Amino acid sequence: MPDSRDHRRRVFFYACTAHFNRGPGVCPNGLQARMETVDKPVLASIGEILAPDLVDDIIVRVREILEPARVDDRRERLTLELTTVEAQVINLADAIALGGDLPALVQRLHIADERRQELVLMKK
Length: 124
Description:
Elements: E1 13-15, H1 17-22, E2 32-34, H2 35-49, H3 52-66, H4 74-97, H5 102-123
Antiparallel strand pairs: 1-2
Helix pairs in contact: 4-5
């Protein structure tokens, strides 16, 4: 029967699987890093790089690329972007209502609303 004082828990590591599965002859990198130590700074760095505006731009671009050829029409592309920008305006307004970083959110909302107004005028 296991001792109740034995508090073993699984610990996970990042490591080169080629090294551990196939040996140092295939890959000499025997470095191991605990996931719990590495994950926080990595995720924080990703959060700094992937700012919400950048993510929004990437989503718009990916949608443009993946849309069928029929969306080549300028009006349809504008409609698609307008839909995305309107969703962004709603999300930013919701974030403001929740009390996020107000100056930054208000600035982003202002920029998104200006783009929305431009798109509406371009569609006419």
